[in-house]
Amino acid sequence: MLGKVLHINPTSDYQGNSKRRGRGGALKTVLRSFNQNSDYSDISAASNFLRKTNWLINQLNQGEDTLNLDFSIDEFRIKVDVDLRDLSKLSRLLYTVHQMGKDKQTTNSFVAVVSIDIIEKPRNLYEPKFKLDTIREFFSRIKDLKISSDISRYDTSLINILLEGIINNLYNEFKLLNFAIIEFIRVLTLQEISGKTEPTEVYDAITIEKIYSLKG
Fold this sequence. Notes:
Elements (H helix, E strand, L loop, with lengths): L1 E7 L21 E5 L5 H14 L2 E7 L3 E8 L2 E8 L8 E9 L5 E12 L15 H13 L5 E2 L3 H8 L3 H23 L16 E8 L3
Antiparallel strand pairs: 1-2, 1-3, 3-4, 4-5, 5-6, 6-7, 7-9, 8-9
Helix pairs in contact: 1-4
């Protein structure tokens, strides 16, 4: 496994300081150190995979135990942390999502933390298209509700209102993100991650862990 892979953009929070760069040169992965279990070809393959997703990579850190990935798709800033200590037991990914304005300033004062099961990737899925229309609708609903305080997974009545009629599509959009991130981890670490079968109930596979407001 790599000792540390870094791609650092000086902006590391959701306070509206990010400057978007051209997609063509968005990902410049810098190798700091690696051990005998990895070589440059592993890093190059992982970098090439992220380029194909057409994501804007804001930050990429890999330590001995954790992979931290911070990226943007359209107006969404998305962060995910992956525990690398035992990938065979990895069953869920946790996303922190914030919607930014066209000027990369805050357009929605809320951040959503969402966890989703890792599902076995279908064989016929080659290059998923990342359309976040339902995530966009989800944030629009948060804004329309004029929520005055943080929401936890236990505020089921509010969460049910937010998810009504869109939960299946929301799950599918996060599931495609999962497929891409798991494939990136596989290419980077040369380890396989086994996914679950498709759930019979979508509510069992995706959880709105928290919705909180940004202060200041």
